[in-house]
TrEMBL record, chains A, B:
Its EC number is 6.1.1.21. Gene3D superfamilies: Anticodon-binding domain (3.40.50.800), Bira Bifunctional Protein, Domain 2 (3.30.930.10). The keyword Protein transport does not apply. InterPro entries: aa-tRNA-synth_II, aa-tRNA-synth_II/BPL/LPL, Anticodon-bd, Anticodon-bd_dom_sf, His-tRNA-ligase, HisRS-like_core, HisRS/HisZ, HisRS_anticodon. This is Histidine--tRNA ligase.
């Protein structure tokens, strides 16, 4: 006998939690489609040579390689070279490969969404997953891509998180050119040095302002006090309204060309956010946002839940200049965001924002009398025809047991049709949630429950 | 520069094909939920020790093992023992592990659906996939499970394939006890020998009746001519109506206990099929169906498309006596079916039953004049609010280019709002599918298109 268990670092849910998670994915997908993004799915494994274009990095140390039994046997006798296949570790590299491979069959700007699991060969620890969902959208241009597309991302974020019903949130915006220009203005012109300062600033929320300032004037950076002061004042800017955001940008002055470009881009993005009807309470400029990745070149985004800052960013992304330089000579600039749904789901549950769902089964048709099974099946058929998810008790077990099953499974309605009901051509409905019971004509059952269920759905969040 | 490509044996689709595939999965999922099945997802990899309980079989030769970079480095110096993780090769073993692991948290009978990809380390060849979707449902009982649940499976198959719109199909039913009883009556009583005969019979559609009969009277089996004749007559039975199915069962007589049990079970299943409203044209008994797997013990199913017999079974399954004997002492009988969606999708395309979908994007809001971008965004916001998928041209490129994009992307409606339209507070709508153009008041746009789109959806199949 083998102990049934999964490997650490993976998410496996009981059905009612899986339903809650699935609803979250459905909301994300529905909104991605609403904004005109097209579905793409890529294989879980890529050729290692294609996936691992940049060798020796953090990424490659975490990759999972895949080998069939045969390949494994051969490898044992071989030189220990890299296996042929590896699991994707994000959705960005597969997107780059996909766009380069299918370039001539795609219409640009190419708008795709992708909701799939990704894999990291990490040491298992709390909050770190070896397998987790990413939900990405990107717009990819051929040769050029207007900065206006950068304004679509926060509109999608707004639609998704509003429908998820996770309370107030703020989409925080910044621009890497603005950051670079600002640092150039302070004499921190060299790219590598800027990157190091940006990386420090990225730790602001975790380490606090004092610790970051101390590092900046300390031996590693050796910045003058007044320069450190200006940096610290700059990175603590958070706008509190649309007008304030524009004023904060104006206050930066024209400065150098890079700064001016960054300011102009961010101003355009914010203007288009307003034009899309995103409420000004839900976005802000935040000059400390740099995103750790060197990858981003313009607009950058993070999204935080106002009542739960400890969760950190629940949706991030930004603008990049060239998606697929490893695979094609075509210049493919893009902008995108990503929601790490597995981590988000756990965090929302821990924060008490999300709870176990009711069942996806709306109705259980109980069975009081073996002779009535055909009636039960017919009732279920009518319910299903009306778009109601229904299951049937196939055996006339004790009624208490049937109710116990429905209760444990989280099913809201139990429908009964016994001798008494048959005589009057009605069904008895027990609403286990409202703890009430009513009768309805057999022919009206589906219509009646349809109304109840739609009311419930209209009221529920995720 | 690295050539962008995928490994052979995987399915990767262009967006419009992905949309068609996604709709197929959505239909399957919706119908599984309609019949009260609950979602389960399991990790892509299982612990090898847990996954590979039966060693040395066909399965293990095809499994993909997974190793992180670190584990791979260690393995190179080690004894070459089996890697810790392996990719699932079906959804049945993960289900068994899941039910055994979470037994005390589940309500029985446990009804689950699972739609995920599975992996086989096969040599790549036409029609063989290394990665493919399986869409499974199973009902698992604790200790016992009424044969009545066997009748739910064909009802679900009927609902799924009706909505998929793949033309006429037949759900073929048989029962392993009926088969075993019949062979016992012919003196073929030994289990292993029965299994060999059943395996031959399973090849009936591929090899033809003459070849199978020749094998049965040949040196491997050595059956008498009259025994072979009775087998051949038996396995060519196909009922052509509900009454005929019952008559075919009656004609088998009572025979031995096993035969009688099988006949009684199949009779009950067929009776309940009728009670569920499945039309009698859509199911038949077929005594040749055995399913290759020794795993099944009672009812077995196959589903064929009437106009495309060459495709073979598009949905199969059956009843088994004990799901998880490797993991728990609890007796867990079950019944289930599986749709191999990836293979099915390719076959339906090859047979011309399924074609590339229109875009999931319903409307493109064109841009004739840079100054009207805010209007475009507002129009899109209203469309999205009405549940319409819309994208916006963010730059006022040449109109011909915008139309070219919409056409290539398969978007049905292009909406234009220029100076002329603004003056009259209308929008121009071009229906690229119907090749017609009309104007509508700006405030009525969403309502008008909603009606058009719902009509289209009501008419479309997948």
């Amino acid at each position: 006998m083998i102990k049934p268990r999964t490997t650490p670092g993976v998410m496996e849910l009981l059905p009612r939690d899986q339903i809650a998670f699935q609803r979250m994915l459905d909301v994300i997908r529905r909104n991605y489609e609403r904004f005109g993004f097209l579905p793409v799915e890529t294989p879980v494994f890529e050729l290692s040579e294609v996936l691992l274009t940049k060798t020796g990095g953090e990424t490659e140390r975490q990759v999972y390689f895949v080998q069939s039994t045969g390949a494994l046997a051969n490898a044992a006798e071989s030189d220990g070279s890299q296996p042929e296949l590896a699991l994707r570790f994000d959705l960005t590299v597969p997107l780059a490969r996909y766009v380069a491979q299918h370039e001539h069959d795609l219409a640009f700007p190419f708008r795709r969404y992708q909701i799939q699991r990704v894999y990291r060969g990490e040491r298992a620890q709390r909050g770190r997953f070896r397998e987790f969902y990413q939900c990405d959208i990107d717009v990819i241009g051929k040769d050029t891509l207007s900065v206006r597309h950068d304004a679509e991302m926060p509109a999608v974020i707004h639609a998704v998180f509003s429908e998820l019903g996770v309370g107030e949130f703020t989409i925080q915006l910044n621009n890497r050119k603005l950051l670079r220009g600002f640092f150039e203005g302070l004499g921190i012109a060299e790219g590598e040095r800027q990157a190091l300062v940006l990386r420090e600033i990225d730790k602001l929320d975790k380490r606090g302002a004092d610790a970051v300032r101390a590092t900046l004037v300390g031996p590693d950076f050796g910045l003058a006090d007044n320069v450190a002061d200006r940096i610290m004042a700059f990175v603590q800017v958070r706008s509190n309204s649309h007008a304030d955001a524009l004023a904060r940008l104006d206050a930066l002055g024209s400065g150098n060309t890079t700064l001016a470009e960054g300011v102009a881009e961010l101003r355009e993005v914010i203007g288009l956010l307003k034009a899309q009807g995103v409420p000004e309470t839900d976005y802000a400029v935040n000059f400390s946002i740099a995103r750790g990745l060197d990858y981003y070149t313009g607009t950058v985004y993070e999204t935080t839940l106002d009542a739960h800052p400890q969760i950190g960013s629940v949706c991030s992304g930004g603008r990049y200049e060239n998606l697929a330089s490893s695979y094609t000579k075509s210049r493919l600039p893009g902008v995108g965001i990503s929601i790490g749904a597995t981590r988000l789901f756990f965090q929302l549950r821990e924060a008490g924002i999300l709870s176990t769902a009711e069942s996806s089964v709306d109705v259980m048709v109980g069975l009081m009398d073996e002779a009535r099974l055909a009636d039960s099946l017919d009732i279920a058929r009518q319910l299903r025809g009306a778009g109601i998810n229904a299951e049937v008790q196939m055996e006339a077990k004790k009624l208490a047991k049937q109710f116990q099953y429905a209760d444990k499974a989280g099913i809201r309605f139990v429908v009964l049709y016994g001798e008494d009901e048959a005589a009057r051509n009605v069904v008895t409905v027990k609403d286990l949630r409202a703890k009430e019971q009513f009768e309805v004509a057999r022919d009206d059952l589906a219509r009646t429950l349809r109304v109840e269920i739609e009311q419930q759905r209209a009221m529920g969040g995720v």
